[in-house]
Fold this protein.
Amino acid sequence: MKRMNPRWKSPPMWPSGVGSRQPCPRESALRRAAISGNIHALPPNHVPIGRSVRVFICANPDDTEAERNALKEHVYPKLRDFCRENYGIEFQVVDLYWGVDPEEWDSPELHRLRMKLLEECLKTSAGPCFVALVGEKYGSIRVPGEVESAEFEMILDAAVEAGLDTHILEEWYCRDENSVPPAYYLKPKAQMLKNYQNSAYTWLQKEMGPETDPVVIVRFIGSSQPSTDLRTLLQSICEQIAINYRCLIHFLPNKIQEMRELLINLLGESSFHRPLVIVLDALEQLSDADDARKLWWLPVQLPRTVRIVVSTLPNKHGILQKLRHLIHDERYYVELIQRDRKVCSQMLKQQLLGVKRKVTSGQQIYVNEALAKCTLPMFINLIYREVVHWRSHKDVDDKSLCSTVHESIEHLFYSVENKLGQRFVFRALGYITMAKAGLTEVELEDILSLDNIVLGDVIVASYLKNPLRISYDLVAKLREELEGYLVERQVRNVTLMVWANRHLHLIAQKLYLSNEEDVHQMHSLLAEYFLGAWAGGRKKIFTYDNNHFTSLNISHHKNPHHQQSHEKTSSDKYSYDRQTPEQPWVFQCNLLEPDIFFVNHRKMTELVYHLTRSGRTDDLMFGVIMNFSWLYTMIKIGQFDKALTDIDLAYSCSQEKELKFLATTLRSIKVKVLKSPASLSAELQQRLLPVVTSLPRLRHLLLECDKDGPKYCSIVPLHSSMDVTYSPERLPLCSSYMQIVEILPTLAPNIVLAALEDGSISTWDVESRQLLRQIDTAKSVVLGIRLTTDEKYLVVATTKNTLLIYDNHKSCLLSEVEIKGSKHSGVTGGVAFINGFTLSTHHALAWLEASKDISIIDLVYGWPLYQFHCWYEVTCVQCSPDGLYAFCGQYLNTTSIFHLGNGEKLATVTSEFSGGFVKSILVLDTLSQMVMIDNEGSLSVWNTKEVTNPKLMEDYDCRGDESEVLGIELSEDQRSILICKVWSIEVLDTKLWKMVEKFKAKRTERFVAAVLSKNGQSIVASMENTSSIFVWRRDSGQCMASLIEISGAIVKLIKSAHHNLLLSVASSGVLSVWDIDIITAMSNIDKTGKKIQTLQLTGREDYVFTMDGSEAVHKWNFSTGFIETVFKHEGIVENCVLTSSGDLMVTSDDKSSQYIWQTSTGENIFRINGQRISQLLITHNDQFVVSLCEQNASRVWRLATGHKVCNILVTLQNALITTANTFLVGTSKNKLLAVSLWSGSVSKKFVCDDGITIVNFKLIPDCPDCVVFITSTETVFIWSVADESVCRRVQLPTNFLKNLEDFQISPNGKLGIVSKGDENINVLDLHSGKLRLVHAAGIIWRQKLSRDGRYLVYVCFRNCDEDDDAGVVSNLIVMRLADGKSIGTCSLYKTPTFLSLSQRALNIIIGFEDGSIGTYTVVDRVDATLKIKIATSNSRQIVNNASQKVRPKCGNHSFKTVADCTWRESTEVFSRDSPINVSDSGEGESTTPTKKTELVQ
């Protein structure tokens, strides 16, 4: 085999399964001839073996009706599913008696069609091709369809001599002089033949020599939609060249430029013995993607043994001009001109003689007239298709033949409609035409069977019964009628029916796809078919109308439903199983080997296309884009970029922000998943979990990952601590923010309006950065712009004191209104500009500077109505949501209420804080309240149920804070009010009217603006002279995220309430659009702020307790991932242990104190002072605590009472308690000691020889009295504590312990895992002493054995020479020890600091450097029960605002300031009794000591 450039690799081009058997020599020769374009080498009428099993059913229809119906209803669907799932091929049955009128069974035409289809089944079936059902009846004798004239006349003479009546014969048989020789045919008769010619191969042999074996590659561009794509075209040509010249393509490049280089390299493989010809027909049909029409990809300098032949229309897309620019020599150009009429007439005559037909001299006149009008080859073929059916007695005139190609095609389609039925042909050809790549024969039969309009025409005549399907003979007749025009194309090993050229496609589109309603319905039905909506026995309703039967002039006895429906209305409904197949993305051959599958390329190609064109956005989103199987398959087959294109297409149709986020996420993990597709589910889950509450539609994909992801990766993230990476859409508006007057968001999330100081108002599409429309205000300086709520009107205020009212959608000026002051105006001199304006539903309200009057303008008619007169100068105006009232704020903290309908003043109120002016007014319509906020941030709340007499409810004084109010916002639920000031941000509760949170800026910092998140739990703000956006959690006050704006310092923030978007303007004049949902999703991740040093999981595995080197222990809810409680200590916490139930926690700090906590309430129920503890342990029955000290005596004491059991005088390191709660085992110098928990004395010991130390030791959980330890002599000992004897000894290799980092023992004591800090895992069999080396994916950081000893979980750091995987720090890997196979890999994007495993289910908890934790579970072999548990876990649940569970505030619980007990050298003193309830898990209850007893000790 020849090898090409090693950077190009290719997956196998020929799928395994059916067809993968070793071919016989003859089959190989046929395949080679077909792939090289040598059609002459094929036997006559022979085609290559097909990719479907076609079985011809031969039976007597009278005697086998029940059997054939049973087979069709119960057997064929199962066989079809079997072939699709196991071999990726179709199963088709040809039974031309099913669904056909019995009167037509003996039809010669049907008999001829049956023989033709039998021959096709014999040649094309990939498996069994013939089944005979033999009954007891022979059946009837069929009448011949055609008899030669001499033989027929002999029959007539013999009948006359015998005295028989020949009237019937002479009536039904007609003489045809056009036949050669003349013959009698049975009326009606149609004969369709086909003639294939291939001239390219012969021409090349003549040019290059008869001894050559040329390769001919032909592509008809435009015959199907994929053929117009340049990438697909070049790839298919490269693959066919590689097959012919036996080249190995290692990798198909992603870049189109590299694909051209691959083609040029492959052209060099041709030789004089095997020259190459590439024929590209209709270059003008190429799509404009990748600049295909510029012909940059076309090789100009060719090897001597290569020829490329191209064709194009002369005036289409400038293709010919570009060719002339590339190739200047005119000798290479041949213009195809129309042929001479006589030549065409002779060609037609030869075609007719080839099928033993001719035309009479009278008919020839009309043929010549038609050829005089057009001599194109296709027109000649269309004339041939018409005249081949002419009979000598047929009346022919000048209208019998059309004059153009398009008219002839239309005439052809009309003739097919007359033969097979108008509705059937209309829908059948419509489906073929609208399909993206064509349809298979079986697909067309399925789709037509789902189409109730088609079934309404064929149900009566065909005697259809359940299951309701059309008969196959209709599809077979359609193909025969359009033979040569409806051709077959092999696309991805599937035989598709497509139009032979674009003219047929254009006419079919014109005739059958002109009605938008029909087209939408047909696209929708195709989408349902490829979705598998009616598969698996799901029944579809069929509505029939008896009036329709009447219109067809069909008697009621032929209506199969007449007996059921004669007592009902004229229209009724019945449900039937249409027996369409399931449509999975892949056909799985073996569930235990998920990566062995056949791709359902038909669904991949067609489904997205039809969903978008039918407008089924929900099905597109949840049936395709949010489907894990689709994503995984697209990545697996190398179509990652195509998947992104489909997601972008879906986003353009639906504008759902979830799709945009998904596309961004996939781009960020592209390198990772292309390298390891199995990690797709874990990578997606890590990124979706933090944002799924903010982007709820992503929950569907999250659950899809839970369902199908464990097939490929056994690690399932339960709670992710990954920080969300996010980049906003950016749009440069001008060179400086000073030129921007105002920016308005719109109802469309990607559309904004920007007003500049030059008087221009532009409408921009932020995503595409396109200017949609622009308004010029005639060089007037713009003061402000406003949009009505329905965005019908755009109102602009100018320095000319005019309001310009525009039609927002048409950008045309409707009216211009001048705003004038009155005699009551406060302006005494100079020019006063418009100070402000606002809009209600139908009105505009505007006021001038220092004015007491407000002008009201009617937006519909564009004229002023009246003026509101206020007491003082107007500062702000707010309209009620219903548009009935206007609230006008003024100086001296006064507000007047007016009726917008009649201009009447209803009331005027004044706040107690009358020194300032009203900065803003909020209308709480749900509570019937009005809130006045003055310039100092003070609030006055008024009850407006009686709008004419408002009642003062509350005053909130903020005058002590001298900072200026920058902005005010009311939360969506109207429960909170945010007041942003220069130095602080305040949040008020509208129920209590009290400040609940306050955030202060540092002395050198100032706020620019602040807004609330949609749920009101987070605050998003920007600071002066900074280029960052900050996110604060309201409950904890912690800054959860800081997003950097690369365009410069942020000077303005605008919130869009419609889509929860945030618009920021940078000093450089760049507008950025941020999604607040995604921004605030970052605050869903709880962090302690310091790296996690240790963590412990309770026995019930419902809570996690972490230590981070601070004075606090954090309690995390395992099911929610949130911090619930913080236990604060006096000093830095050094030790923490839990009882098995997790109800009690014992801790110690560096202040020589021990604490006992009730974890459910957070109460510090006991505190002991006196000694600094180096290690804390709790016995397995939760009764005793061991406090080890390095300086003083260690103690064993009862947890329930604090009563001392004994002192331990020896110093132990890394101590462990045996499972029997008998001994405390630890090391001391070169000794391994077992100390009794009852006496404190050393009961057992193992002493090493001089110079030998104990490196590490572990207890065996399943063997209570056994200890495994390693000595410095690199020997592993298994020591029995009870017998003080060595049970087993294993010698390790030399220098094995040089870099020992970790040592693990399986619970049964059979395996030991040793880590040396390198890339190898050493598995030690403690029974045999054998050491097995397993290579890890990187340098091992930590490793843990599962409790059952079946799995090894480890974290390894990436190799330095690996490509950057978007910030991957390390990898979490799970290995199955039975076979050493890695069953799951998950990337970690933060530095891990602690690794822990649960004892029950295999849950993994990892602590990170930023104080967050991540939890994962392992699902091996797709455990169904665990999958359900994951799907119903809290992290997978989405709740709406109505039923949203309130996130509990984190409880902070402090330590006792006074100790209950003080330990001294020999006594401890209690200040009071502190009985603690401890559940006894093993031994009998002991009496709690009295206070007197305790003091004696």
